[in-house]
Structures are given as structure tokens and as C-alpha cells.
Amino acid sequence: MQNLAQVLVDFDIVHLRAIARQRGVELESLVHRDVVDQLVPALMEPAHIKRALKAMSDAEREALATLQRAGGKQRAHLFLHEHGSIRRYGPARMEREEPWLSPASPAEALWYLGFLGRAFARVEDETPEFVFIPTDLIPLLPAPDPEPPTSEKPQPSTEIAPVRIDASNAGIVTDLYEMLLHIQLHRPRAVESALPDMDAWRQRLGEECPDEYLEFIYHLGRQIGLVEIESGRLRLTPDRARDWLDRPAIWQWRSLMNAWKDDAEWNDLWRVPGIHCDRAGWENDPIRSRERFLAQLQAVPAREWLLIVDLTRQIKSSDPDFQRPSGDYNSWYIRDAESDELLVGFEHWDTIEGALITHYLCRPLHWLGMIDLGYDEEGEDVPALFRITPAGEQFLSNSEIESIEKTATPIEVNEELVIRLAQDATLYYRLQIERFTERVSEENVFQITPRSLLTARSQNIQPPAITNFLERASTSPLPANCQEKIRERWHAVDQIRMRRLVTLDFSEPAVLDWLQKDPERKHLLGEIVSPTRARLPESQLTRLLKRLRRLGLNPEVTQPPEN
What we know:
4-stranded antiparallel sheet, 18 strands
């Protein structure tokens, strides 16, 4: 920051004369440089400083103390939000209105007493504006009173316990697996920048799953390279998908957490309910926002119920600019979704940043299994409390993943071709098994059936390949009778007989009803489809036509198209 001379030299002569008048300094010249040279030593005299401090209001002294406690400087928007604005004037208007006589705020009063400067400073890759005390003036000020003690982090809620608990989603890895299985079996069409139509996947997860969650899982699968597009259809990326599926579950979960944390494409701010982001002309950094939010979450007690509002207050106090490092609250075009009001200024922090914090907890972190949510009342839609799960605690503490040995025998096969998957078998074996089996009611149990082998045919999987996989995965030869059963069930669906059918359409239901009542004629009608329609094999057509003509009926015979 700057010393007093550097601060004063940037002020116009009207401002310098106002400071001199407020501090009781008789100027000997009206030349700008001479005024600065006279004011600097005068304003730094201990007697001048003591008189100025004594004449200050409590609010003005507290504003000055705020900067002292912060090391002499604070980001401008934070200081001005807490201690009032400093109006900007040109020299003519300043001289005409004399704002120092009726300052709009404690901050403005200090501005015209010569205790404050404003400047931009480089912080990482941003250049925010600061309000500061001139550096050579800081050691001349008496030490400020200590700030009232405040809790550095949200404390466990002992008085409020949730009436209803929405436990974190521990099954996101399984849900992603269901999507990968569906893609493997059905190769759905890809839809640009949208969720593909995968009804079977949705049915497996449950109709109550919101589209946003399904989109989140699909996006993560694409983000970590498990899914690619080939000829307009989705397919699993061979090497990456196999590697991911063959990893331990904890590693797979951690990969999803890291994918979200480091993902610049999934913009959480754009998805916050209640606000609408006009995306042209500005941009935010989702990765940096998450990093700073997760750093705040690391200081929170795990496995304890905490109020969401307490976490929001704590972040607003300790790191309010977690998503706006430059402190720019004026150029982001964000509107209230209901009123369409443009939300400009730090006063809308709770509506934007506060809502983003709640969104982090209730959407991605809850979906990823890091956060449990608690509700004050049974019918409430918005949670009041949150709790970091054991898995969330491990991730936030950056604990290493313990090495897990793979099971030596992932599957067991019995004589009825029932396959039992080991509890610690990886998802790779499960996906391979589900390409030629059906699930049974018991968890991790599958069976080879004639219908499941139709799925195998659609995947171009032949019986020898099934046998080879079962022998490798069970680490033992497949008995001859089991191999024979696979062949039998494979060929059980080979025989498909086709026959040509003739449809009879009657203009009146009474005709068909009359024909049915004669036992000799009834058997010639074949299958009765409706009161005016019957269907029979083509081989019976000649006999039926003769019978109908003998009865005085002359049906019209219409030939179908060639194809």
C-alpha cells in the first residue's frame, strides 16, 4: 500500500483543503505540491492525531479499528459495506456541496480527515480495490480494542435436531454403473448438450430421480472419459471404462468427487434455484469457487449436525469473495428469477453467494455422498441443517485410499447356471456378467436363461466366449453339463416359425356372430380378434371361401402389397 504523501498527492486541491480544514491546519499556499508537503508532517504529528481521534464518533473509531485489526487494509467492498459508502465527487461539485460537513458514513468521515486511501493491488491473478490506512500513519495510531470474540466455525447444533433426515446418496457409483450398463447394451443415440433418452436407466434408478441428478451423473461419466460418441451413438470408451470399472469402489467414488471439483464445464452458479445468470459479458470460475468453499468446509466439525445459515455467515465473514476474487459485485449480470431484478452490489451476497452455498450442500455434495441433510419439519422442502458424512470427512482431509487386494475368485457358477458375484468383486465382472445373464431377486446373483442369451446375441457374444469368461472369473473349468445347458438355452430361441395369416373384416358384427353359432363353420374362422374381425392361417382360406359362397356370401379378396 501507499504512505501518506503518496495518498495525498492523488487528491485534488479541493479535497486537500477540506482535510486541512477538518484537521485544523492553516495552509500557507494553494499550490498542490506545496499543500501536500505541508499536510504530511502536520497530519503525522502525535498531537494532531490525538485531537482527531478524540473528536471522532464511536462508529468512526470502530471503522478505523477495523482496518488496524486487518493489518491496515481491507477490500474496499467489504469495508464500505460494513462502514458505509464514500461518495465520489468531481472538484467543482465537491467544493459546491462540501460533503465533509455532513459525511454520509463513518468511512466518508475518515476519508475527509486524511486517515484513508484507496488503491488497486495485485492479488494472485486479480486486481481488487482496497481501502487502507497510509503505511507511515499506522504505527502512530494507538492499538485498537480487541475485536469481540466470535466463533471461527459453525458449532454443532445441540438444541436443534432434524425432524427428518435425507441421508446422503451412497449409491452414486452404482447409479453411474447402471448408466454404463445401459449404454453397453443399447447404444442410445447421443443428444448434443442434453441428457440422452435412456428410459431403461431411469426405470432402474426410480422415477423419482430428478433430471438434474441424471444429467449430473451422465456429465461426470463423460468428464472422466468413460463414455464417447461414435457414429451418433454412445458407447463405452474401451480402455478407460474397463480400467474404471475394475477399480475398488472407494477409488471410483473418489474419482467422481475429483471430477466434480476440477470440472470447469459444470457451472454450479448457473444452476442455483431462484436466480438467472445472463451469461454474456462476464464469466465466473467454478473450479476456484469450489476450492475455496471446500477449504471452508474443511474447518467444519464432521459427523455433527450444523445449521446451514451458520456456515453461510461464517463464509461471509471469513471469505466472502470465495467466488469473486476481484471483489467485483457490479459487472456480473445475475437476475432474480421471479422479479427479473438485476442483482448488483454486495448487498445481494446472501441472494447469490448464500444461495450457492446452499446449492453446493443440497445438490452436488449431497448427490456425491458427502453431506446428509436435516429438516426442521416433516413437510419442509428446504433443509435447515447439514452433516458431513464419514466419506466426506475422508475426502476433505485428503486421506489416502488404502490399497485393496482384488478377490481371487470373483464369481461362482452352479449347475443351474446361477452365477453368484463375490461381494468384493469389481464392477467390471458385474458388467461382463450382465451382458449374458438376468438378475434374480437376490443381490449379486444372476442366471443364464434363454432370454438373457438374446441379450448376448445382440452383443455378438457366442457360447464359447461365455464359457471362457466363466472359467477365467471362477478360476476353474466349467463342467461339461453346464456347457451343454448353455448350448441348449442358446438354441432354444433359434427356432422361429413364420406363417401367413388372412384377416377377415365383416361390415356388421351380426354376420360374424351368426357364423360362430354354427359348429361346422366356427372352426374355419380361426381367431376372433374383435366383433367384426377374424384371423386364420392362409391354408384355410380356400375352404372358408367355398363355405361362405355356399351360404350366399361373396367376400371381396384384397391382395397385400408385394413388400
